[in-house]
Give the backbone structure.
Amino acid sequence: MRTLPQKTTLTLAGVRGAPAWRISFRAVTFAAVLAMALIVAPALARGAEGAEGKPAPQSVRVAAISFVPEKLDLAGNADRLERAFREAAAGGAKIAVAPEGVLEGYVVNEMLAGKIPVARMRDAAIPIDHHLIRRFQDLAKSLGLCLVFGFAERISADVFNTAVFIDDAGVIRGKYHKMQLAEGYHPDWWWNRLGVQSRAFDTPYGRCGILICNDRWNPALARIPALDGAQFLVIPSYGSKSEAQDAAVLARGRENGLPVVEANVGVSLIVSGGEIAALRREAVAVTFSEIVIPTAAVRDPAARDAEEQKFLEWRSGEMRRRFEAKVYPGLETLKPGAAAQAPAR
């Protein structure tokens, strides 16, 4: 116990030689400080916690990666992607996002145009346990960096446009299949299947939701993971570089009160606090910014499922309409016709 200074005397009733009314000023001051410390200490111990013991919003450094991948060059693209992730880690990023289809070079449009045979997708698509995916799991662990990137995923006889989230321990935390296609959809497209469900998932920095490219134009596809408790969104893209796409990404963030990291080939866009935190239009770049990830949201599975069902009902007719509105020379057995019409992505 700390000894009071000599001049600090406590004189109470019953103490010999001291008036019953006399208490020194220094004693009162010390006692007051001690009492205040006992009251304040628990609050200080909570550190970053906010009201009712909930963690406060956290600021996280992120990176959006852009480069133009070579068509069907998985090995070469993987090397370039690794270099970009290493640059992101060197710049202090904790989460790094790369474009859609970055491993195989996103070849769907070339197949639709007849420039690459559809059969080549069997060479381009890989399963989730492929050695290239394991390579990036090992890289994530060695760098202490969460990685997000797109690739063509083979599941049995089907291929999906997929994005995967690998955490900083090398663990796959979640993946997502693109749910809205600019080109429309045909049931025979084994090489370009539609996703059927969107779910947020836990990460070291809170729950994450994923959209892929054309998904960003549809508010429902951001709202579904938000209703599932997403605290931030990531969008691997390989499409429009217009100001309209910037506005769409910003709107998805504002509508749901969430930060967004979009990695588009030629456009890197990071949204935080309802504002654009970083925007860069370069084909080859690693763009950095801080995002503020909000506290955990209340999950509403019933509202999530209702929103998703509403979207799926709309999509059924919309994907057919988009397909029928276009002509694809690479798919003459399905849609014979004249000149190609490139889909707006």
Observations:
- Residues 250 and 280 are 14 Å apart (CA to CA).
- Residues 301-324 form the longest helix (24 residues).
